[in-house]
Design brief:
The chain is mostly helical and 284 residues long. The protein has 14 helices and no strands. The chain has a domain of 127 residues: Alpha Horseshoe (Serine Threonine Protein Phosphatase 5, Tetratricopeptide repeat), CATH 1.25.40. 68% of the residues lie in helices and 0% in strands. Helix 3 packs antiparallel against helix 4.
Length: 284
């Protein structure tokens, strides 16, 4: 859908005479129409160039980006695929896989990322793509394994750890190697508040049979909120930790701090929702 008075995908006004909120003749809308027109010209120029040189992988990739911007998903996927077939570079394969993933074609995306992983074993994002595709296909354990592998490709890159931590927050499995990777994250990035938070979360999930874990988990959650006083989920986990130990004054104080840091998150907790299932950190 598009607002009445504005252009649709081919850049023409189909909305009749009524103007949009900013006024159809405004400078903003004229600039928008010009961008749409130029985008259409670029696409036509790319298509014409491909008729002359159909084997130009760079042109196919550029056209895919233009189609994606226009919202033409199927055309974008086809152009990314053609670019990758002509020149299976890291960027061409990754962008093809990412486009498939974006449109929920999870199995084909996994196959593309697997090929990219074989061809480019040093690519962090290719290994991450495999992990995200595995999770989308419903395999938590395989996703965690793939993200562990991604973190090993370049241990200084925070992105695999953040995805792994998010996975820990929503998954119930106990995959070997996760704690060690998140401990490394904390060690290598001492200023990142998510590092001690996710490390603590992983330890807390594995606390059974380890009575000494509570003290370490408490220290890590405290470290996280010490680095970022707005990290509401860490206060919430501290509250859960204290409540499990029946230390009610500390539990109440921690939960009050979580409400102060993020009132919405605090309301969800008081309503009985599983806030440890939040996916904080943002998309990469």
């Amino acid at each position: 859908m598009y607002e009445e008075g504005f252009e649709d995908r081919d850049g023409q006004n189909r909305g009749g005479g009524r103007q949009g909120r900013s006024g159809f003749g405004s400078e903003q809308n004229r600039a928008r129409r010009e961008r749409v027109r130029m985008g259409g010209i670029e696409r036509e120029e790319s298509r014409a160039a491909l008729e002359r040189e159909p084997g130009d992988a760079s042109r196919h990739h550029a056209l895919a980006e233009l189609e994606e911007k226009k919202g033409n998903s199927l055309a974008a996927v086809k152009e990314y695929q053609r670019a990758a077939e002509l020149r299976p570079s890291e960027i061409n394969l990754f962008d093809w896989g990412a486009e498939l993933l974006l449109h929920r074609a999870y199995e084909p995306a996994s196959e593309v990322f697997a090929k990219g992983r074989r061809l480019f074993p040093g690519s962090v994002r290719m290994a991450m793509g495999l992990g995200v595709a595995a999770y989308a296909l419903g395999s938590y354990e395989l996703a965690a394994q793939r993200l562990c592998e991604a973190s090993d490709v370049d241990p200084s890159d925070e992105k695999p750890y953040l995805f792994l931590g998010k996975l820990e927050a929503v998954g119930s499995g106990l995959v070997p190697g996760v704690v060690e990777r998140l401990e490394r994250f904390e060690r290598l990035q001492p200023g990142n508040s998510w590092a001690p938070y996710y490390h603590a979360l992983a330890l807390w999930k594995r606390r059974e049979g380890h009575p000494e874990a509570a003290a370490q988990v408490e220290r890590l959650f405290k470290k996280a909120v010490g680095q970022d006083s707005k990290l509401a989920v860490a206060y919430l986990q501290l509250g859960i930790l204290y409540a499990e130990g029946k230390d009610w004054p500390k539990a109440i104080a921690a939960l009050q701090s979580s409400v102060k840091a993020d009132p919405g998150l605090g309301r969800s907790f008081s309503a009985g929702e599983r806030l440890s299932d939040e996916w904080p950190g943002g998309k990469s």
